[in-house]
C-alpha cells in the first residue's frame, strides 16, 4: 500500500513528537524513540517508544475506517513482542479521519482475546493544543474538536511568529497537508496563507501533476516563482547599467514582495540617468 502525503506528514510529526498531544495520549513520559522497522515483516510502526515505566508505546495513525485494523494491530503486537522480548506493550490507534469512527478495537476468537486502545482525535478539545508553544501541537489542533474556527486559525497563524523562512515553509507545508483531512477548514487555512512568500518545489508536493496544479501549495510555489523572476530582472538591469550590483542592494531587492512594484522599478531603472541616486532613494534606511 502506497503511503499518502497526509500519512507521511502525520508520521513525521509524531516522530518529531508534538509534546502536549503526546502527553494527552499517554501521561507516562516517553524516554526513548525506538526503531519502527519490525523483523520478519514489512510492517513499520508510526511510533514506537519506550516509556518511563519500561513499557513500550506503539501508536498508529489511522485516516480512514479500516475493518482489518484489529488484525493489523495483532500483527504489530506479535512483531514488537518478538523484537523487544516483552509483552508490556500499550497499543494505541489515533483516528484522524473525517468520517465518523466505525472501527472495532478488539478481536474475540475461540482461543484468543485481543484488544487495543483507540482515540478519535476529535474527542480532544483543540484549545488544549492551541495553548501549547509547540508548533506541531498547533498543527495537530486542526484535527481535534473545533468549536471556534476563528480562534483556531488565529492561534495557528500566531505560531509562525519568530520563524525564519525555512521554518515557516515547513510549518505551512505540514499544516496544509494535514488539513486535507478537514476539507472545509483547509479552504479557510488556504485563504490565510495564499499571500505568504514561501518557495514550494514540485518535489515538495506529493500529488499528481493534474491535482498539483489545482492545489494551494502549487499556487504558492508558482506565485513565488514569478516573484523571483521579477526580482532577478531588477538585479539584471542594475548590473547591466552599472556593471555590478552595489553592496546590500541584492538583499533589499529580495525583500520586495510586490511584483507590480518591481516591474515599475525596472522601468525607472531603465529610463533614469542616475541609477545610484535612484537606488539610494529607494533603499534609504
Explain what the structure shows.
The chain is of the alpha/beta class and 285 residues long. 50% of the residues lie in helices and 12% in strands. The protein has 13 helices and seven strands. It has helices at 5-16, 19-25, 69-84, 126-130, 135-141, 149-158, 165-178, 183-193, 209-214, 216-242, 249-254, 259-271, 275-282; strands spanning 30-33, 47-51, 56-62, 89-95, 106-109, 112-115, 117-120. The strands form two sheets. Strands 1-2-3-4-7 form a five-stranded mixed sheet. Strands 5-6 form a two-stranded antiparallel sheet. Helix 5 packs parallel to helix 7 and helix 10 packs parallel to helix 12. The longest helix is centred in the last third of the chain and has 27 residues, at 216-242. The chain is elongated and about 90 Å long.
List keywords for this structure.
285 residues, alpha/beta, 5-stranded mixed beta sheet, 13 helices, 50% helix
